[in-house]
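Here is the promised in-class demo. Please do not try to memorize the tokens; focus on the logic of going from shape to residues.
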């Protein structure tokens, strides 16, 4: 599928705002930088002094539980959050 600039259309902002105000507001909300209050609430000082690993899965909706590798990944992510380490689980 080839798309060219000549095939694109540009709508006026006033028109888009009339038909998609809620979506625009949601986008703008996520585009904003987090408030100081939010950033302070995730401060290291507000975290428990000791990290406790989950030995077994929490119970989720419809009695679902995590598999062992999922529990291990969740513990790793939570441990890194607790120690203010950025991490990505792939």
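The designed amino acids, position by position:
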């Amino acid at each position: 599928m080839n798309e060219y600039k000549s095939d694109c259309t540009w709508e006026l902002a006033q028109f888009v705002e009339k038909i998609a105000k809620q979506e625009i507001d949601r986008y703008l909300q996520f585009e904003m930088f987090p408030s100081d209050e939010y950033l302070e609430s995730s401060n290291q000082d507000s975290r428990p002094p000791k990290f406790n690993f989950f030995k077994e899965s929490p119970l989720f909706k419809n009695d679902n539980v995590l598999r062992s590798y999922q529990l291990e990944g969740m513990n790793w992510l939570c441990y890194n959050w607790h120690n203010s380490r950025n991490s990505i689980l792939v």
